[in-house]
Design a protein that fits this description.
18 helices; mainly alpha; globular; single chain
Length: 386
């Protein structure tokens, strides 16, 4: 069987850079949406309701899987060029570890503070709360200190440090048995779209019912199975030309599948909510989870194919956003929560309030980035590369 694991023609995958920027952008919009839905979150708008939930469900099954997949690809390319495994791990520990430290101690603290203020658990000012937040005494109803939305960076750093000593073995697998499996799966659109996501369907059946998502790292086993697997999948397919060639052929079919399943979900959620909810109960749950798994993977394949076809080119905008978007991710949720908590008491109405929260979030991220990228020490603690 023909197996090809050589890199694609260009040294830099601009399509994946664009897709990473788009994924983080969607994540920012998603977190603004969390301010307006009934799902559990840190603070809530007075206009929170059911209206935005179907739109949130469109990207919910694949938004983070896409980020971990791209992260696995980036690790493969970066590690292959690294001078040593130790230096590679050290650079990642600096680039991810310092923002985690800054995030837990400073950036996320206002989120916890305003969450407790909105529930009337505390009445003191932030200067009084902050030392209590940092002292690990667990005097509040929420865990403090915490990493909140920065769990993605924590998990990514743990995965990178886990695989770094295994790079020789992983490269051997990547050029051997795993490469043959990927080539076999990539032989036609049906196998690519139906066989590749099967591990995630098995995780949904065997792990997810017993290990709910916690984002707490040490007890999040079903979540780890999903995220670490998609991360490794990205690592193994990063330089596999058979896989990327099949992506270029299969993305229209993937897009059609994703649109069909998405349309059916929206139809049921907006018109037959009780029927939709019953699909997640036995005996229909396995079928539902299989379709959602196929939907998530088909969405990712479609996005990979579309970006490979139309976005694989550099630009000044991309160069700017590639460096800026990680900082935006680090700081955005704190700005959303501060802006939302402050604005919702004024009764501007949902549309004006949402627009103001969006403008303040993007403006605050942009202003913060332009300020901190000029400060070498500040840039290091916020994941900004010089």
């Amino acid at each position: 069987m023909h197996t090809n694991t050589q890199p694609m023609s260009c040294d830099r995958r601009y399509d994946l850079d664009w897709l990473r920027v788009i994924a983080f952008g969607l994540l920012i919009l998603y977190h603004i949406g969390m301010f307006y839905v009934h799902w559990d979150w840190h603070v809530k708008s007075q206009y929170a309701g059911l209206g935005a939930e179907p739109l949130m469900q469109i990207i919910n099954p694949w938004r983070l899987a896409l980020l971990f997949f791209i992260s696995g690809i980036a690790v493969r390319f970066a590690s292959d060029k690294a001078e040593s495994h130790l230096k590679f791990a050290g650079l990642r520990l600096k680039h991810l570890g310092l923002p985690i430290l800054m995030g837990i101690t400073v950036i996320v603290a206002p989120q916890a503070y305003l969450e407790l203020r909105q529930t009337n658990e505390i009445a003191s000012g932030f200067p009084t709360f902050w030392p209590e937040y940092l002292n690990f005494s667990q005097t509040f109803s929420i865990i403090t200190p915490t990493w909140n939305h920065l769990w993605y960076i924590v998990y990514l750093l743990v995965y990178i440090l886990t695989v770094t000593p295994l790079f020789p073995i992983l490269r051997s697998f990547s050029n051997g048995v795993v490469s043959k499996i990927i080539s076999w799966i990539s032989k036609n659109p049906i196998s690519l779209l139906l066989l590749m996501p099967l591990p995630f369907f098995l995780f949904e059946l065997t792990l997810s019912p017993y290990f709910p998502v916690t984002h707490a790292l040490i007890d999040d086993w079903a979540h780890h199975a999903h995220r670490f697997t998609i991360f490794l999948m990205g690592y193994f397919v990063a330089k596999h030309t058979d896989f990327w060639a099949q992506i270029a052929k299969s993305w229209p079919y993937a897009l059609a599948i994703a649109i069909c399943i998405c349309t059916l979900r929206l139809y049921l959620m907006t018109g037959y909510l009780e029927t939709y909810q019953s699909l997640f109960e036995m005996p229909l749950r396995p079928i539902t989870m299989f379709l959602l798994t196929i939907y998530a993977w088909s969405s990712i394949v479609a996005l990979l194919g579309i970006s490979q076809r139309w976005l694989n080119r550099s630009s000044r905008v991309l160069s700017y956003l590639t460096n800026a978007v990680f900082f935006y991710y680090i700081i955005h949720q704190t700005i959303i929560i501060i802006a939302g908590y402050t604005l919702t008491s004024y009764g501007f109405g949902p549309l004006i309030e949402f627009s103001l929260v969006l403008i303040l979030t993007l403006g605050g991220c942009g202003l913060g980035y332009e300020t901190l990228r000029r400060l070498p020490m500040g840039a290091s603690f916020f994941g900004i590369k010089s």
